[in-house]
UniProtKB/TrEMBL annotation:
Its EC number is 1.2.4.1. The pyruvate dehydrogenase complex catalyzes the overall conversion of pyruvate to acetyl-CoA and CO(2). It contains multiple copies of three enzymatic components: pyruvate dehydrogenase (E1), dihydrolipoamide acetyltransferase (E2) and lipoamide dehydrogenase (E3). It catalyses: N(6)-[(R)-lipoyl]-L-lysyl-[protein] + pyruvate + H(+) = N(6)-[(R)-S(8)-acetyldihydrolipoyl]-L-lysyl-[protein] + CO2. Pfam families: E1_dh. Transmembrane segments: none annotated. This is Pyruvate dehydrogenase E1 component subunit alpha. Keywords: Oxidoreductase, Pyruvate, Thiamine pyrophosphate. Residues 42-324 form the Dehydrogenase E1 component domain. Its cofactor is thiamine diphosphate. SUPFAM superfamilies: Thiamin diphosphate-binding fold (THDP-binding) (SSF52518). It comes from the Bacteria. Heterodimer of an alpha and a beta chain.
Length: 367
């Protein structure tokens, strides 16, 4: 028998609404209420100010390493803006803006970065998982949560974030396959920032897009300009509505750029040049969005200056609050490290407790 086509594979579309200068394609401009536009801008700008403050704290040795979000604010806020409080957010390790949008407090983020697990305690009524450092493992968690919501007959959806590097992990493919086969209400948001630490996208995959990987699993794949908040908003709305109303997962690729270090333990000058970064600085998602908002008469330079000053003052106060909490935790009983491990004691835990208790006594006796 001669060869014949089994199935016509789907196409992957690329969406862009705001160009690099902030000019809008009127034919594609979404009808977003002005209050929502301003709220998204506020979240993006606050996320940038928070990121800058966090970087200073790390350089001063006050907190540990973390992954900056500079340049990726639109990809996070434009997507998370469609989540209801009852929906689930499953982040990786570079979603600070999305986490704050969902209600995370600066104090808790800084507490965790300073080495205190109390910073990632999940409130009883929250549906936000803690950040996940192991690459792509959170995608399986998201698929599992989506399976549970469907099993319970709820109409809540799950949104999970990952980077381009995660697409080379088996967990990514397992999660997409599981979600596609079982028709799970989950949106996979890939922040394609061009780098998996020092590995460029060209050495990560031969695929022309990451979105096209969705085709193999029989689910929709969309590609958007990840620095264009309007394009992300439109694509994410489509994906969220599909998940909620049709129980169909989506892979949403947001093409953006990691403008800062991978983490504060990284030195990007060893593998990329300023010439690599410069074109993307011109595509900054915040300045692009601000140009659009100014053209609509919603903000001006005076307002923006005032917002930045307000955010920076508030963050100073938040850091003082964080320091007070750290002092409280340091004054607590070190035996508390065992409290969150098991619901009950087991022989090996009892043995470890006894050893640790005696060690503390000896150390205190010797000053």
């Amino acid at each position: 028998m001669p060869r014949h086509a089994v199935e016509r594979l789907g196409t992957v579309t690329h969406l862009s609404i705001l160009d690099e200068t902030g000019a809008v394609d009127k034919a594609l401009e979404p009808d977003i209420p002005e209050t929502d536009l301003l709220e998204m801008h506020r979240a993006m700008l606050y996320g940038r100010c928070f990121d800058e403050r966090m970087l200073k704290l790390q350089r001063q040795g006050r907190i540990g390493t973390f992954a900056p979000i500079k340049g990726q604010e639109a990809a996070q806020i434009g997507a998370a803006a469609h989540l209801r409080p009852s929906d689930w957010l499953v982040p990786s390790f570079r979603e600070i803006a999305a986490q704050i949008w969902r209600g995370a407090k600066p104090r808790d983020i800084w507490l965790f970065a300073a080495g205190y697990n109390e910073g990632v305690a999940i409130p009883e009524d929250a549906r936000d998982l803690p950040l996940c450092v192991p690459v792509a493992t959170q995608l399986l968690h998201a698929a599992g949560v989506a399976y549970a919501t469907k099993y319970r007959g709820e109409d809540d959806i799950v949104m999970t974030f990952h980077g381009d590097g995660a697409t080379s992990e088996g967990d990514f493919h397992e999660a997409l396959n599981f979600s596609g086969v079982l028709d799970l209400p989950v949106v996979f948001v890939c922040q394609n920032n061009q780098w998996a630490i020092s590995l460029p996208l060209a050495k990560q995959t031969r695929s022309k897009t990451i979105a096209q990987k969705a085709v193999a699993y029989g689910i929709p794949g969309l590609r958007v300009d990840g620095n264009d908040i309007l394009a992300v908003w439109v694509a994410a709305k489509e994906a969220v509505d599909r998940a909620r109303n049709e129980q169909i997962p989506t892979l949403l690729e947001c093409v953006t750029y990691r403008m800062e270090v991978h983490t504060t333990a990284d030195d990007p000058t060893r593998y990329r040049t300023e010439d690599d970064v410069a074109p993307w600085r011109k595509r900054d998602p915040i300045s692009r969005f601000e140009t659009y908002l100014k053209a609509k008469g919603l903000i001006d330079d005076k307002t923006l200056k005032g917002m930045r000053e307000t955010f920076r003052d508030a963050l100073k106060h938040d850091w003082q609050e964080t320091q007070e909490r750290i002092e409280e935790l340091d004054a607590g009983d070190p035996m508390g490290i065992f409290d969150a491990l098991y619901a009950q004691d087991y022989p090996h835990i009892t043995e470890q407790k006894a050893y640790f208790r005696e060690r503390l006594k000896r150390e205190r006796a010797h000053g």
